[in-house]
Design a protein that fits this description.
single chain; Transferase, Pyrimidine Nucleoside Phosphorylase, Chain A, domain 3; Pyrimidine Nucleoside Phosphorylase, Chain A, domain 2; four-stranded antiparallel β-sheet; 16 helices; about 15% strand; binds uracil
Length: about 425
């Protein structure tokens, strides 16, 4: 087989068969196909697309290009969740204990953050002592004993995607639905869970800006999962403003704990319940959606989910006892309040801008390998549709670097829009795709 022929075939809008896709993926992961041919092929896919069968074959070939988690020693049906990335999205920290407390095992592999979206692993690592590197045996043992564990993705998980994504990133070929769908699903398939719940974010702070394209992406991912023999549900959710009231690692951990205590913001609680309920159905714990929601509510209201969270944190070396009223998460040395400069309703709170402000404060990485300040971030007192008066505190910014605080304050104020009219409510859950 010849790479150039396959590039030309795709460039001319023809379908690639499974052997051809396997050949390309092999060459991408072992490095035998040079960058310029990989990028030419990615550009051909960008313009010509891929059909459902090609997209699935690509996802599967990439999933098996490196380590594949073997969760056969876990008792029960394991379920996983994935978010396409948003600002202030700390649902994983709430959903894992909800699902595990209801009896469904969660063996979670997560990544670190890059750019304006945070990574679940960074959030967990902001808990002093928390270990994200476990051996496979320790991981499986913990899932069997505690029903929940979260680890950092292995270095050799989907090497083909790692290289292809890096090339796409610098060749203008990221925004292709079959390439995004196969990239995300290759990692989910390699992570080994039977059931997968996908949260596809749409809006200013998300990868997908338009509802229509988010729905197309969700459908493509559900098809891949189903074709690979997994059970998949996708929800499309709003990401025009950040989720919850905090953005930044330890601030988000605290908010997740508050939510598990029943004292969190409504949007975070609602979305966590929706995702957890889908996971209970896929995990075979609940026969239908209504039962699943009741089950999730029960473990939340009884404090069992909070207890499960603590159990998981302790099992992985985290040194926090949330039962003690004086437990402490590390706090930033400096903080400053941001005040409204006019009266009115919050008619817009740009999630992308809030995410970039948090990054500016030190909460995120500009480049792979950058250090982050776990305590840095933003806490929003006012969000979409809230009424404010001029001079009222709308948010607080936190950092260990005083120099970053002032610039962040004015940037955050610019993320807010005010109007004299009450804006129309926006639903958090836009669509569910099964
Ligand atoms: N996230 C991924 O993992 N892959 C993509 O292609 C885009 C977003």
């Amino acid at each position: 087989m010849n790479v150039q022929d396959l590039i030309i075939k795709k460039r001319n809008g023809l379908e690639l068969n499974r052997e051809e896709i396997d050949f390309l993926v092999h060459g991408i992961s072992d490095g035998s196909i040079p960058d310029y041919q990989v990028s030419a092929w990615a550009m051909a896919v960008y313009f010509q697309g891929m059909n459902e069968r090609e997209t699935r074959d690509l996802a599967l070939a990439m999933a098996y290009s490196g380590d594949v988690a073997d969760l056969s020693a876990v008792s029960g049906i394991t379920v996983d969740k994935h978010s396409t990335g948003g600002v202030g999205d700390k649902t994983t920290m709430v959903v894992i204990p909800l699902v595990a407390a209801a009896g469904v095992p969660v063996a979670k592999m997560s990544g670190r953050g890059l750019g304006h979206t945070g990574g679940t692993i960074d959030k967990f690592e902001s808990i002093p002592g928390f270990q994200v590197e476990l051996s496979h045996r320790q991981f499986v043992e913990q899932v069997n004993q505690v029903k929940a564990a979260v680890i950092s993705q292995s270095g050799n998980l989907v090497p083909a995607d790692k290289r292809l994504y890096a090339i796409r990133d610098v060749t203008g070929t990221v925004e292709s639905i079959p390439l995004i769908a196969s990239s995300i699903m290759s990692k989910k398939l390699a992570s080994g869970s039977h059931g997968i719940v996908l949260d596809v974010k749409v809006g200013e702070g998300a990868f997908m800006k338009e509802q229509e394209e988010a729905i197309r992406l969700a459908r493509a991912m559900v098809e891949i999962g189903r074709g690979a023999g997994r059970q998949v549900v996708a929800v499309i959710t709003d990401m025009n403003q950040p989720l919850g009231q905090t953005v930044g690692n330890s601030l988000e951990v605290q908010e997740a704990i508050d939510t598990l205590r029943g004292e969190g913001p409504a949007d975070l609680e609602d979305l966590s319940i929706i995702l957890a309920a889908h996971m209970l159905v896929l995990g075979g714990r609940s026969s239908d959606w209504d039962n699943a929601v009741t089950e999730v509510r029960k473990v939340l209201d009884s404090g069992q989910a909070l207890k499960k969270f603590m159990q998981m944190i302790t099992a992985q070396g985290g040194m926090l006892d949330f039962n003690q009223p004086d437990y402490e998460l590390p706090m930033a040395e400096f903080e400053a309040e941001v005040r409204a400069d006019k009266d009115g309703y919050v008619s817009g709170l740009n999630a992308l801008e809030v995410g970039k402000t948090a990054m500016l404060l030190g909460a995120g990485r500009e480049r792979l390998g950058d250090n982050i300040d776990y305590t840095a971030g933003v806490k929003m007192a006012k969000k979409y549709a809230d009424y404010v008066t001029a001079g009222e505190v709308i948010a607080t910014v936190y950092s260990n670097d005083k120099a970053r605080i002032d610039a962040a304050g004015s940037r955050l104020l610019n993320a807010y829009q005010f109007s004299n009219h009450r804006p129309t409510p926006r639903p958090l859950l836009i669509e569910t795709i099964k």
